[in-house]
Design brief:
It is built from nine helices and three strands, in the order αααααααααβββ. By secondary structure, it is mainly α. The chain has a three-stranded mixed beta sheet, with no helix packed on it. α3 packs antiparallel against α4, α3 packs antiparallel against α6 and α8 packs antiparallel against α9. The protein is globular. The protein starts with 5 loop residues before the first helix and ends in a 5-residue tail after the last strand.
Length: 261
């Protein structure tokens, strides 16, 4: 007689998946603490958090139809924490960024979720509702995993990982493994399939971080070792040191020209 049945393994990976996902949801805290301290969103984007909120709402709806407790608990926590992140973003974002975030917020978690619930309840019979909602959740999960690609593009363009939270990438990869096995054990492809992509993108983000982790360190010329260019001008009688804002922070010394009499 097997000590661990499929039900036991499902519970194990369900608990591990919840624990890993909590770390995923909490990993942006350093970034938002930075936003709070500086009172500015700087280069951070709201889209990943809005999409994550929308996805969590969809998964709660799907889990209520299927009766999957582990999916309900973690996504309820996800809705709570993502809402806090979005509120902080809106508080400290400039008007243009705030309006963009509000448009996406209205389009997905408000209008999109309401429309999806209404259509599936009115148009789809009870037996087929969970199947349709499951596929919608699958697509939304893929969007959650793809959402950080905008950050990856920024990393490649700027060669800087300053606005790429590495903890999120690490915990995302770990969480994807746990939920993949959970979905595999309970034979739910809507849970298993998107986490294959989630693990792949999590690893890709980690690799990219390792490649560009030193890219944001800009070497500057110190005042003790300036690059000097001497320009002659008969009308200047004093040595004037000008700090010119150039890519290499070149210091230009303008000195009086030698006496030509």
């Amino acid at each position: 007689m097997a000590i661990f049945t499929e039900h036991h393994w499902a519970n194990v990976f369900g608990v591990l998946g919840n624990a890993a996902s909590v770390l995923v949801y909490l990993s942006p805290i350093p970034s938002f603490y930075r936003i709070y301290k500086k009172k500015s969103i700087e280069g951070f984007q709201a889209y990943p958090y809005v999409i994550a909120l929308f996805s969590s709402m969809l998964w709660i709806y799907y889990a209520l139809l299927k009766g999957t407790t582990y999916i309900i608990t973690i996504n309820a926590f996800g809705c709570f924490i993502e809402t806090i992140y979005i509120i902080l973003f809106l508080l400290y974002a400039q008007r243009k960024a705030r309006m963009k975030a509000l448009k996406v917020l209205f389009a997905l978690p408000v209008f999109g979720f309401g429309l999806m619930c209404g259509l599936t309840m009115w148009l789809i019979p009870n037996k087929g509702r969970a199947i349709v909602v499951g596929w919608i959740c699958l697509v939304s999960s893929v969007c959650v995993f793809v959402a950080p690609l905008c950050v990856l593009g920024q990393v490649i363009k700027t060669k800087s990982v300053e606005y790429m939270p590495i903890l999120l990438s690490i915990f995302l990869a770990i969480s994807a493994v746990m939920w993949f096995f959970y979905g595999l054990i309970i034979r739910d492809i809507n849970i298993a399939i998107p986490n294959v992509l989630g693990f792949s993108l999590g690893v890709a983000q980690i690799v990219l971080y390792m490649c560009y982790k030193d890219g944001n360190k800009i070497e500057k010329i110190t005042e003790n070792e300036p690059q000097v260019i001497v320009l002659g001008d008969e009308k200047i009688s004093q040595t004037v040191k000008l700090a010119v804002l150039l890519p290499d922070d070149i210091h230009i010394d303008v000195a009086p020209a030698p006496n030509r009499q």
